[in-house]
Write a structure and sequence with these properties.
- Helices cover 56% and strands 9% of the residues.
- The protein has helices at residues 3-17, 26-101, 150-167, 180-188, 218-223, 225-237, 251-254, 268-277, 281-292; strands at residues 130-132, 138-140, 147-149, 171-175, 209-212, 243-245, 262-265.
- The N and C termini lie far apart (140 Å).
- The strands form two sheets. Strands 2-4-5-7-6 form a five-stranded mixed β-sheet.
- The chain is α+β, with helices and mostly antiparallel strands and 293 residues long.
- The structure holds zinc ion.
- The site of zinc ion has 5 residues, from strand 5.
Length: 293
């Protein structure tokens, strides 16, 4: 055997003894390689599709989740809006009902309305419940003789405590209940119709009105730092104690000139109503008259 023959023999022997080369031709080998590539492509393709699908689902779910959250938020906002709206309507209804029932006519009513044309039914009307205003935080410049209706006094006591806390000052009451005779005396001394009601027509006759500090002129109140501070406090807070500043919009509306010192007790809901709607007692009266037409 020469060398070539030996090599041939070895090759043959090798093929016979290695099973995976047994009977495999070149063509078959290429076929298997292509088959593997195809299987790999299919596997990779399937993996890619499944993965993309999962990603897509995840994004979709996230989208849905976000939509649900924003929908919930919108629902909540709408619900709150509706609640506010309902409350507003309810309050308005309550007020309208209240306005309808407010007694502006009876002399003893806490909401008796008077102006230069509307007077008390009885010339000599005197409130039954008059008491002095004496109290730690209230100064009566008439030596403890000032009298007001008891219901006003009790509310004013509370107001005075808060006023003292805010300003470190007591409230000075310079005017109070004034009966027919007293009012007539004031008018006879020449007080003008712009600032003094005629006898029988004054809010002071109700025992539900007081003047504080200085019953002089608005100019005085504007120029005096203390008075200005007091007025601002009263304007912001007095309604909480059921007081209203009756004369603040001048003659055309209130029948009298502006009187920052004149505060009228009108009881709960009316004081709130006037404050919330930024209207005076006279405007309220006209509104009610309009409503009742
Ligand atoms: Zn007054």
């Amino acid at each position: 055997m020469n060398k070539k023959e030996v090599q041939k023999e070895v090759k043959k022997d090798y093929k016979e003894n290695n099973w995976y080369f047994k009977n495999i031709s070149k063509k078959q080998l290429i076929f298997f390689i292509i088959l593997y590539i195809i299987i790999f492509i299919i596997w990779f393709g399937a993996w890619f599709i499944i993965k993309s699908n999962m990603e897509y689902k995840k994004i979709e779910q996230e989208k849905i989740r976000k939509e649900q959250i924003s929908k919930k938020k919108i629902d909540k906002i709408n619900e709150e809006k509706k609640k506010i709206e309902d409350e507003k309507i309810k309050k308005e209804e309550e007020y309208l009902n209240y306005i309808k029932n407010v007694d502006l006519k009876t002399d003893s009513s806490l909401t008796k309305y008077v102006n230069n044309k509307i007077h008390y039914n009885k010339l000599w009307f005197v409130p039954t419940d008059l008491v002095p205003v004496e109290w730690k935080y209230i100064i009566d410049w008439k030596w403890w003789s000032i009298k007001v209706q008891k219901i006003l006094k009790e509310s004013l006591d509370n107001l005075a405590v808060d006023f003292f806390e805010a300003t470190d000052n007591n409230i000075v009451v310079v005017s109070w209940y004034r009966g027919y005779k007293y009012q007539k005396w004031i008018k006879d001394r020449g007080c003008s119709d712009i600032f003094c009601a005629k006898a029988w027509y004054s809010e002071h006759q109700s025992g539900l009105a007081i003047d504080i500090y200085s019953a002089s002129s608005k100019r005085n109140w504007v120029n005096d730092n203390n008075l200005r501070e007091y007025y601002i406090w009263f304007d912001k807070n007095a309604y909480k104690y059921w007081f209203t500043n009756t004369y603040k919009k001048w003659i055309e509306i209130d029948w009298y000139g502006e009187e920052p010192w004149h505060w009228r007790y009108v009881w709960t809901k009316l004081a709130n109503y006037l404050q919330e709607n930024k209207i005076t007692f006279a405007e309220f009266y006209n509104k009610k008259i309009e409503k009742n037409k």
